[in-house]
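Format notes (please read before filing issues)

Several people have asked whether sequences and C-alpha cells are stored in separate files. They are not. Every record keeps both together, in the order shown below: the sequence lines, then the C-alpha cell lines. Line labels are part of the format and must not be stripped during preprocessing.
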Amino acid sequence: MITRALTLVALLIGATAPASAQNKLSWGEGSALEPDMQISRIRLSDKTSRLHRILPSLSHVTQSAASETFNFLGFTHICGRSRHGKYLLKRKSRRDRMRGKLKEIKEEMRHRMHQPIPEQGRWLAQVVRGYFAYHAVPTNSASIGAFRHHVVDLWRCSLSRRSQHGGITWQRIKQIADDWLPQPKILLPWPQQRFAVRHSR
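Then the structure lines:
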C-alpha cells in the first residue's frame, strides 16, 4: 500500500457544519472514497489530510464566507457562481506556481536566444502544450490565456535583445507566436463529466 500526503477536498452538498461533513465523508474503512483508494493503492494520513468546507449555496452566507479560497494540486479553488447564478467551485492556476514556471522559461530563453526562430518555436510550443494539458480546465480560461501572453512577451524580449535593427514589435511577435504556439482553450472536461464516465452503471 502506498502512503501519500494529500489534502482531501470534500465537496459536500448540504454539509453546513464540520461535524456533518465529517459524518458524510471519512477516509477510513467503509467510506465513500474506499473503492477509488483501493484501486489507486492510496492510504490517506490523518495528520496530512484536511477537510475543506465548501459552501453549497451563496444566498444565505456573507461575502467573506463565500469568497473563501484554498490551494490544492496547483490550483486556487474559489467558491463562486455560474453564469446562471448557481453554486460553482472555480479553479484558477496558482499565481505563485505560474510565476515560477515563467521564471524557468525566461532563464531557458536566455540560453536559447541565438537559436533559429523555428527551433525556439518548437520548444516553446512543447512547453505551452504541456502547461495547457494540466491547467486547461473549466473556469481557468483567463489564467491559461495570461500564461500564453507572458510566454509571448518573454519571446519578444529575447528576440529583441539579439536584433540589431531595433526591438520586435507586438504585431510581428504575434504573427510568429500564432505560427508556433497553441491558442488557449479548455481541453479538460468538467469533474462531474469525468466522474460520470468512470462510474457509469
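For reference, the curators noted about this record: The chain has eight helices and five strands. The CA atoms of residues 159 and 165 lie 11 Å apart.
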